[in-house]
Specification:
The chain is α+β, with helices and mostly antiparallel strands and 189 residues long. The chain has a domain at 11-132: Beta Polymerase, domain 2 (2-Layer Sandwich), CATH 3.30.460. It is 48% helix and 20% strand. The protein is built from 8 helices and 7 strands. It has helices spanning 11-26, 35-41, 62-71, 81-88, 110-118, 134-144, 147-161, 168-181; strands spanning 31-34, 50-56, 74-76, 90-95, 101-107, 120-124, 127-131. The strands form 2 sheets. Strands 1-2-5-4-3 form a 5-stranded mixed beta sheet. The protein has a two-stranded antiparallel ribbon with strand order 6-7. A hairpin with a 2-residue loop joins strand 6 (120-124) and strand 7. 34% of the residues are buried. Mean pLDDT is 81; it is low at 158-168 and 183-189.
């Protein structure tokens, strides 16, 4: 279900992906692209202003990852980024050259690690990224539940009705099976 990118990404996003990709490649199998870039890569036309990736929490040393990303020009956008990440499980970064935000989530839940293992390669703006499968994107979006996430899920169903995402019913059956494995604690207020 790899989609053809139907929208041109901004030069800033493209340059940031160019800087980020060597780090993702070095940690292949321990990261995946989620968020707007993943939605676009899977065939849903939309605009994004940032890049969201997840790294396997058990396999990453935060300080080493921050240093590795900084070597590629992807730097902290808040003070004490490591303390914030230890508390929130998110590194808030920015590509210094382009100003594009890069949010790095740390994946610890079985669902996230399974999504990482299931991610597949998709070519986006000249680079190959390990992108979350559509059924996993639906779950990520349902959990986040922000207005853009809700729109992405709705657009996913539109893409299926247009025949762009084949096997849409199977995709949602897979999502339901995966959803049932998510710890209910994250769904409680």
């Amino acid at each position: 279900m790899g989609g053809k990118v139907r929208v041109a990404l901004s030069q800033g996003i493209t340059r940031t992906l160019d800087a980020l990709t060597p780090v993702l490649d070095r940690h292949k199998g321990r990261n995946l692209v989620i968020g707007g870039i993943a939605v676009i890569a899977r065939g849903v036309p939309r605009v994004t202003r940032d890049i969201d990736v997840a790294f396997s929490g058990p396999d990453i040393m935060l300080d080493a990852l921050v240093a590795e990303l900084a070597d590629k020009g992807i730097v902290a956008r808040i003070e004490d980024v490591l303390a914030f990440a230890a508390e929130s499980q998110v590194l808030l970064l920015r590509h210094a050259e382009t100003g594009v935000d890069v949010d790095v989530s740390l994946a610890w839940m079985p669902f996230e690690l399974e999504a990482m293992a299931a991610a597949g390669p998709v070519k986006v703006s000249g680079v190959t990224l390990q992108v979350a499968q559509p059924e996993d994107l639906v779950i990520y979006k349902a959990i986040a539940c922000r207005p853009q996430d809700q729109q992405d899920v709705a657009c996913s169903s539109c893409m299926a009705s247009e025949g762009i995402w084949r096997g849409f019913g199977d995709m949602f059956a897979n999502s339901a099976r995966r959803w049932s494995k998510i710890d209910s604690a994250i769904l409680r207020p």
